[in-house]
Amino acid sequence: FPSHDSKQWNDKSGNRYNAIGTGTITRSGTINGIPVPTWTGSTNTYFLGSASNTSTTVTAFGVFTMNSSSSTYVRILSLGTAGTPDYDKVTAMNPITNNGPTNFFAYRNNTSLGAVTSVYGTPVAVCSRVTGSNHTFFLNGTAGATVATSGNFGYSNYTVGSSPTEESTSYLSGNVGEI
What we know:
Radius of gyration: 15 Å
Mean pLDDT: 84
Distance between the termini: 13 Å
Strand order of the largest sheet: 1-2-5-14-7-8-9-10
Number of strands: 15
Order of helices and strands: EEEEEEEEEEEEEEE
Largest sheet: 8 strands, antiparallel
């Protein structure tokens, strides 16, 4: 990730799930001394990439620091279809979402899938896992409640830092080191 404004986040997995940036995102923050992309809380600032899934399972990881100036319900990661809400159907999901002031949770098909509490400004490592019948959210290695959820996914896009339809009202302020 370059040190100046970036318009692309390159996938390091080898699957070429690269994301295109919108707005101003710079590598001006750090997590544990490592330079990382920084969101300043500006509207319409996010990365959008292509990745599809029609199975019943998904696992998402994130390492980030969120500031208190972030919007409520900001998506650290959203799985859906560009231009379509990501919260009200079984085929999409917000695997890593903030529901201020310090709650992080997953959301799918109009249902909260458990919440964990963290502290603003503190680096966290999270994992959001759907096994086909259940969801568990992990914060720094500790599992939250397991919540029932099922059905096939049907998403074709992902966003980092916003939702696919609420770019102008739900925005991130903080640093993201890994998704």
